[in-house]
Design brief:
Blueprint (H helix, E strand, L loop, with lengths): L4 H10 L5 E4 L6 H7 L6 E10 L5 E7 L6 H8 L4 E3 L2 H8 L19 E6 H5 L4 E3 L6 E5 L1 H10 L5 E3 L7
Parallel strand pairs: 2-6, 3-5, 5-8
Antiparallel strand pairs: 1-7, 2-3, 2-4, 6-7
């Protein structure tokens, strides 16, 4: 059974990770997020959960929300061969979240090594905070970049930093 948002937030707290969570109506797109968040400081993300050809693991790409992304260019850059969007069933089975709630924190529900995590280096190296969903699109949680990295590494999903501002072609 996937972790609940409450259990995730408790786990972060137990690990000494400061997480400031804001509740809001469900958000499904970056545009909705921008409209409803007001002046919530920090970097905001968009996430792509992608399927690669087996035996490669699924791929979670986490980018700053305004970064243009091309799945084909990402596939070339990452050397994965063809990529496609994972479907709702694969998303639930692998990350335990529904569409609109994809987040790097969902890796809490994935066995180590089962998902390749690629993140925009600005989300890992900046002063922060980084705003992500805590397993639900009805909340946004702000984390310091170093804490986000430490949490993901502790799950066995070390993020691969990538410069998504450089041309992907």
């Amino acid at each position: 059974m996937p972790q609940t948002p409450e259990a995730l937030l408790a786990r972060l707290s137990m690990q000494g990770i400061e997480a400031l969570t804001h509740r809001h109506p469900p958000l499904h797109t970056v545009a909705e997020s921008k409209e409803l968040r007001g002046d919530l400081p920090g970097l905001h993300v968009k996430n792509l959960f992608l399927r690669a050809k087996p035996p490669q693991p699924f791929l979670l790409v986490v980018a700053e929300e305004d970064t243009p992304l091309s799945i084909n260019a990402l596939a070339r850059r990452l050397g994965t061969g063809r990529l496609s969007m994972a479907n709702e069933e694969e998303l639930w089975e692998r990350l335990g979240v529904r569409p609109g709630s994809v987040t790097p924190l969902a890796l809490v529900n994935a066995p180590a090594g089962s998902v390749r995590l690629v993140m925009d280096h600005r989300l890992l190296d900046g002063p922060g905070p980084v705003n992500v969903h805590p397993l639900t699109n009805t909340a946004t949680t702000a984390l310091r970049p170093a804490d986000l990295r430490r949490f993901l590494e502790g799950l066995g999903h070390p993020p691969e930093p990538i410069d998504l501002t450089a041309p992907l072609a």
